[in-house]
Amino acid sequence: MKRRTFLRAGWVLAVASAAGFRWRRREPADLVLRRAVVYDGTGAPAREADVAVIGDRIAAVGRVAERGAEEIDLAGLVLAPGFIDIHSHADLVLLVNPRAESRIRQGVTLEVVGQDGSSIGPWTEAQHRGVAERYREEFGVELDFRDLAGFFHRLERTPPAVNLASMVGHGTVRAYVVGADDRPATQAEFERMRALVREALAHGAVGLSSGLEYTPGSFADADELAAVARELRGSGYPYASHVRNEDDRLLGAVEEALHVGRVAEVPVQVSHLKAQGQRNWWKAGTVLEMIERGRAAGTDVHFDRYPYVAYSTSLSSLFPPWAQAGGTQAFLERFRDPDVAPRVERYARAKVALLGSWDAVQITSTRTERNAWARGRKLGELAAERGEDPYALAVRLILEEENAVGMIGYGMSEENTERILAHPLGMVCSDGGAFAPYGPLSRSAPHPRGYGSFPRLLGLYVRERKLMALETAIHKVTGMPAAKLRIADRGVIRSGAYADLVAFDPATVGDRATFTEPHRYPVGIRLVIVNGVPTIRDGEHTGRLAGRPVRGTGASGGKAP
Predict the structure, then answer these.
(1) 253 Cβ partners below 8 Å, 6+ apart?
(2) Measured between alpha carbons, how far is 502 from 109 in angstroms, rounded to an integer?
(3) Which among 82, 116, 499, 540 could disulfide-bond with 53, CB atoms 3.0 to 4.6 Å apart, if both were Cys?
(4) Taken in order 441, 82, 43, 201, is the CA torsion positive or negative?
(5) Would you say 267 and 261 are in contact if contact means Cβ atoms under 8 Å apart?
């Protein structure tokens, strides 16, 4: 709580301790939530209770006899901690539309970004100029920062509707130090990368992520990853990895992530765990056993997964990483090189064959309006309509959009999705960005997970399919990720915790976004409170923006606030 809150209330007695604070009731609380069915985020069964809020904190949970300055009756509704998206890509777009419509309406109150090896800085001057020009031209937003510290300060000046924590991306750090070249780092470059990770931790990063299917992270070997991840030692923060391969070489890729954790002696988070391509579906059980054995052997390992059978990434993921060495222009030139282009084509066609057909590839976004006709359409269908070879069409989009094309890939099984979601070591994420059905964030045809992941979990997998108990599902998106990231006083409902809360109707909550109509809000999310401020009220956005950066505590071994 801020000091002025103490002085204003006059009746609050705060005790700084692991248990939060206690208060004496002499005047009304700012807000009292009545008769809620409370799931506290720990995995415990529900209980009916009132919840009192003072400032940005929960003051009491139980029977609150006193009237609040504002009261909301939640009879028949579930009240849970605000959802923590442990793998989110809602970062810079929060400056484009701070209302965070597709996020806050899902009940998400904390975004954990900096994933898949890519974070908001550190950027060189040239890297910053490229990103800043894009955001200025496309959205009219000025980016006056080059690292996480600057981004956090910007969010404090212009707060969004949601809180935000961030990892530091290994790929971003490598690009800063080594560039886009496919080569080992030198010893001096190792030391520089490690220094940048230390700096990011000091600025509040809550872990290190890698994206080993993307350049330039894919050019790093396990020794480099372990050397850089070693900077997390003692902090408790995890090494989170989009592993090097999620299909034919999945088992070796997960073993590499576990190896990095063992060597660096740090926790591990396997990002969006999946077995991609029908011929690899059998591997899901094996990889879960590997993770269980790794944990039994002493590695603090967990994983996350979104509740869909399709993934979303860049269209460039269909092409070999080696072809993307040297940056965008070098990549584009390789399509025109008669000695190289056939190898690139063989790789891409084999990748699509793994998915089944070109209709398993759906375009989500293009940088320009020139190819807006492709958004939301499957490549196979588009190619047939236009009388083009689908591979040639994919290459043309890459060339014309200078590699700024997004895609959805249909590659996983529903049986494995359920198995992964229900596993006790698994958390649930969106792996999505922030969107809105209006304005500049409505221009793409994104994966529906950006709008529906958490209501889908609660509606489809809990209520309809009874895959897990409601208290288990809530724990997977609240207390469990908060504990993994050592974020204190969030992800739980108890006295002294931050008042990040979501109330929903368990009988109706669900997603409405689809792969063909993605810009649709979920249903059943009635109330969302961020740092004590009602941001969704009766299912509608209040326009109040109370989000803030959630910083880690560096490598000191402390806990993030």
Answers:
(1) 212, 243, 244, 245, 246
(2) 8
(3) 499
(4) positive
(5) yes
Domain 167-270+273-309+417-428 top-level CATH class: alpha beta
- φ, ψ dihedrals at 17, nearest 5°: -155, 170
What is the Cα–Cα distance from 382 to 392, expressed in whole angstroms? 12
Please report where in the chains the tokens 């803030």 appear, as a residue.
Answer: 548
How many Å apart are CA 11 and CA 6, to the nearest integer?
Answer: 8
Taking CA 308 as the corner, what is the angle to CA 302 and CA 309, rounded to the nearest 5 degrees? 100
- CA-to-CA distance for 113 and 344, rounded, in angstroms? 31
Residue 212 — left, alpha, or beta (φ > 0 → left; ψ -120 to 50 → alpha)? alpha
Give the pLDDT band (50/70/90) at residue 26. low
CB of 200 closer than 8 Å to CB of 168: yes
Pick the closest to residue 147 from 162, 168, 174, 164 (CA basis). 168
3-class secondary structure, 492: coil
Task: With residue 409 as reference, give the H or E element that holds it.
Answer: strand 405-410
17 Cα distance to chain centroid: 30
pLDDT, greater one: 98 or 23: 98
Q: How far is it, in rounded angstroms, from Cα 135 to Cα 138?
A: 5
Tell me what the pLDDT averaged over the chain comes to: 94
CA distance 281 to 417: 10
Q: In the predicted model, is pLDDT for residue 540 greater than 80?
A: yes
Helix (H, G, I), strand (E, B) or coil at 329: helix
Q: Is the distance from CB of 309 to CB of 448 less than 8 angstroms?
A: no
Encode pLDDT of 493-502 as tens digits.
999 999 999 9
Would you tell me the crossing angle of helices 414-422 and 283-296 to the nearest 10 degrees? Answer: 20
Residues 6+ apart with CB under 8 A from 514: 448, 520
Q: Which CATH class is domain 1-112+448-545?
A: mainly beta
Which residue reads 């591997």 in tokens?
283
Segments of 118-258 assigned E as strands: 163-166, 168-169, 208-211, 239-242
- The residue to which tokens 């969704």 are assigned: 536
pLDDT at 25 over 60: no
Q: How do the domains of the chain map onto residue ranges?
A: 1-112+448-545, 167-270+273-309+417-428, 313-410
Spatial CB neighbours of 454, under 8 Å, sequence gap ≥ 6: 83, 85, 106, 107, 108, 428, 430, 477, 522
C-alpha distances (whole Å) from 414 to each of 52, 251, 271, 309, 310 are 41, 20, 18, 6, 10
Sequence-separated (6 or more) residues with CB below 8 Å from residue 203:
147, 148, 149, 152, 551
Distance CA 379, CA 547 (A): 39
Q: What are the phi and psi torsion angles at 238 (to 5°)? A: -90, 160
d(CA 66, CA 29): 8
Q: Rounded distance, CA 173 to CA 16, Å? A: 37
> What is d(CA 74, CA 502) in angstroms, rounded to the nearest whole number?
11
pLDDT at 162 over 90: yes
361-366 vs 405-410, strand pairing mode: antiparallel
List for the chain the helix, strand, coil content (%; round to 5).
40, 20, 45
